[in-house]
Amino acid sequence: MQPQLTRRDELIAQLAKAQSYDIAVVGGGATGLGVALDAAARGFKVVLVESHDFAKGTSSRATKLVHGGVRYLAQGNISLVREALYERTTLLNNAPHLAQPLPFIMPTYKWWEAPFYGIGLKMYDALAGKAGLGKTEFLSRDQTLKYLPTALPRGLQGGVKYWDGQFNDAKLAMAWRAPLLRAVRCW
Questions:
Q1: Between the CA of residue 130 and those of 86, 145, 166, what are the distances in Å?
Q2: pLDDT higher at 177 or 175
Q3: What's the CA gap between 129 and 166, in Å, rounded?
Q4: What does the buried/exposed string (b/e) look like for 34-62 if buried means 16 or more CB atoms within 10 Å of the residue's CB?
Q5: Highest mean pLDDT among 29-33, 128-132, 155-159
Q6: Could you give the 3-state DSSP secondary structure of residue 166?
Q7: What are the φ and ψ backbone dihedral angles of 149, each rounded to 5 degrees?
Q8: Cα 63 off chain centre by
Q9: What letter would DSSP give residue 51?
């Protein structure tokens, strides 16, 4: 299959014509591409507007995490954590060649950090249920230094290991490009 060549000036001229769309998506990063493709797959007439190129902006500088919402848990937004965990599971199941589980180690330097973060992350595990990627573990000082040999050893108490997901947004954008160009008007 040959790449679909596009001329931006022609696309902008087409966009200026009177037409109606069900959904307009602004931004061709991982989220915008996913929203546009999902909407098109559901039969909506979609226009995707991107100022430069797919996955060039925020996606190109992001953490590449497909997280289940640890930060939302800290904010007490349980429904958003559940939604993020569901979306993470969907991406990991649908695109295992683009997304995979990733362990994180949080070193602790104060006596209260391990129980504080550990209990929160155990709650995260519980919310994930069967969709969990691995169990949160409390680590000793030596275990933490084994995983993180460049961690500052002075004052290190231990650590907490938890799991989330990581994905390759550039490969995801390329994988979605062909179906998007067939189904969505892109500018």
A1: 11, 30, 18
A2: 175
A3: 19
A4: bebbebbeeeeebbbbbeeebbebebbee
A5: 155-159
A6: strand
A7: -65, -20
A8: 8
A9: S
Give the homologous superfamily in CATH for domain 8-61+170-186.
Answer: FAD/NAD(P)-binding domain (3.50.50.60)
State residue 31's pLDDT score: 81
Where in the sequence of the chain do the CATH 3.50.50.60 domains occur?
Answer: 8-61+170-186
Q: Could you give the 3-state DSSP secondary structure of residue 101?
A: strand
How many Cα atoms within 13 Å fall on the side-chain side of residue 139? Answer: 23
Residues β-bridged to residue 25: 48
Is 30 exposed, middle or buried (CB count within 10 Å of its CB: 0-12, 13-18, 19+)? buried
Taking all residues of the chain, what is their mean pLDDT, rounded to a whole number? 86
In the block, residue with structure tokens 């007439």: 45
Amino acid at 26: V
First CA to last CA distance, the chain: 21
**For the residues 161-186, what does the mean pLDDT come to?**
75
Size of the chain, expressed as the number of residues it contains: 187
Q: Which amino acid is at 51?
A: S
Residue 36 Cα to chain centre, angstroms = 16
